[in-house]
Every structure is written in C-alpha cells, then in structure tokens.
Design brief:
13 helices
C-alpha cells in the first residue's frame, strides 16, 4: 500500500508541477470560453430574447440579460465536464513517457505488483481531474457572479462535486484503456490533439445537440460525453432557467431546453440526471474492468 501511495504522489507531482501540461489540458476550456463569449454568447442570447419577446407581457432587456447568464452557465457546465477528459489525457502522457524512457519497465522489476502500478496511474489521473475540475468550477462561478448570476445553492454545490467525482472516475478509466495501447509519445500527442479538438463537438458545446442532424445526434447519444455535459447543465441551469422561462408555457420551455441539449430523449426515453449518472458509471466500470483484463494479459 505504501508503494502504491508513493507512486500516486509521484504521478500527481509530475503533472501538477508541469505548468505546460496543466495549461494545455485547460486549453480546450479557454478556447470554448473565447468562442462562446466573443462570438456565440450575444448571438444566442439575442436570438432567445427575440423569441421570448414574441410572447405577451415580456421585458426584452430583462430576457436578454437572463439569456446571457443562461448561456454563460450553459457553457460553463460543458467546460467543467469536458475538463475531466482533457486533464486525464494530459496526466497519462507521463505514463507514455515512462514507457518510452524505460521507467515503467524499471518500476516493474521492483517488488511492486503490476496491478498497483496500473492503479496508481488511474488514481493519479482521477485525483488530478477532480482537483482541476473543482478549481474550474470555483473560477467559473466567481466569473458568473461578477457577470450578474446568483451564487449556486449549497445543494447544487454538493451535486456538482458528486458529478465531478463521477465524471473524473469515468474518464480516468476510459482514457487509461486508450493510453495503455499506445507506445509512443508522438502517437499519444496526436490522439490528445484529436480528443481536444473533438470534445467540444461531442459534448454539444459548439453546436447544441438539438441543432444537429438526427443521425449525428443519435451517434452522440451513444457516447458518455453528452451525458456528462447534460448532468452538469441540469444543475447549473435550474435556477436561471426558472427565471428566464417564468410565465412561458411548458411546451415552449421544453422545446428550448431540448434544442440546447439540456433535455433530450434517448431510445424514446426522457434522459434525467439519474440516467446520466448510470451511463457514466457503466462506461467507467466497463473500461476499468477492460483495463484490468488488459493489464493481466501483459504480465
């Protein structure tokens, strides 16, 4: 157990002390914020406010202000979720480096079980992901409050903390399985670039799920990313959506949230937060088991 703990500490130090790795694992977040706030934020807010203004007794300026906060929180919910992916990719780059430098082979010759070595990489990726995602939540919430949003409730904070832990578990297992099959740093760097580029689309951040073609939307619903993003958004948007859609019919409200991917159906079943939790648990557990099997075969 002591050896496992020391390996976890080592792996975490390698990542957290590498400012470049930390920065690039957050790069997709910075890109999403820039694109959303500079180009898409006002457009989306004005479009939604214009739609609501067609209804009787609406205050356009109030709707526009609430719509801006709505899309800000909508974006932040997606960012926190996908950070778990980009952080774990960055953490596992040290595992690939250990392979290519022969360090992993040297560790394997020590009286340490291979299972403990594998578990140390997964645990360090999980913990680093939790730390960075909590930091992202804190910074994002402060920014949202400065922009005029109300602070999240205590209950919402506990829900988001649970989601961060669950999200980090799922992606640390999934990403480890992918990384365990990679042998060179160049290959992993390429994979990381592809993941960092696609993750915003897979999570329905650049283009909302409801705006995609049916075939593509159905494909995204087969992946865990959209469920993780939706899970965060449901909690972060619960208060502002009630204010924004106050006095609006349930049909119009559901249509808007469905278009934005906050509410959607999978196999004709409305997806709830409970369904999102179950999907992420199943994906994480499945890839953790596959990783254990793969590790045992490499002995």
């Amino acid at each position: 157990m002591t050896q496992y703990t020391e390996l976890v500490k080592r792996n975490m130090r390698l990542y957290l002390r590498d400012k470049g790795a930390v920065f690039f694992s957050l790069l997709s977040m910075l890109i999403i914020i820039a694109v959303s706030m500079l180009f898409l934020g006002d457009i989306n807010a004005e479009t939604l406010a214009d739609m609501l203004s067609a209804l009787p007794n609406r205050d356009y300026e109030a709707d526009k202000a609430n719509a801006k906060l709505f899309f800000l929180l909508w974006t932040v919910g997606g960012i926190i979720s996908i950070n778990a992916i980009t952080v774990t990719v960055a953490v596992y780059s040290n595992m690939i480096k250990d392979k290519t430098d022969g360090i992993l082979g040297a560790i394997s010759t020590c009286p340490v079980k291979r299972g403990a070595i594998c578990a140390s990489y997964i645990t360090s990726a999980f913990l680093c992901s939790v730390i960075i995602c909590i930091l992202t939540l804190a910074i994002s919430e402060i920014y949202c409050i400065i922009q005029g949003a109300e602070p999240l409730s205590v209950r919402s904070h506990f829900e988001l903390l649970f989601y961060i832990i669950l999200n980090s578990f799922s992606y640390s297992a999934i990403t480890y399985f992918i990384a365990s099959a990679v042998k060179t740093q160049g290959s992993w760097s390429g994979i990381g670039t592809v993941i960092g580029t696609l993750v915003g689309f897979l999570g329905g951040i650049y283009i909302p799920l409801g705006s995609l073609a049916d075939g593509l939307a159905s494909f995204l619903k087969c992946l865990p990313v959209i469920y993780g993003v939706t899970m965060f958004r449901k909690t972060m948007l619960s208060d502002i959506s009630s204010e924004l859609f106050n006095g609006v019919s349930d049909e119009i409200r559901s249509e808007c949230l469905d278009t934005l991917g906050v509410e959607f159906e999978s196999f004709s079943i409305p997806v709830t937060s409970g369904h999102c939790i179950a999907v992420l648990l199943l994906w994480g557990a499945a890839f953790l088991i596959l990783s254990v099997i793969l590790s045992n075969k490499k002995r």
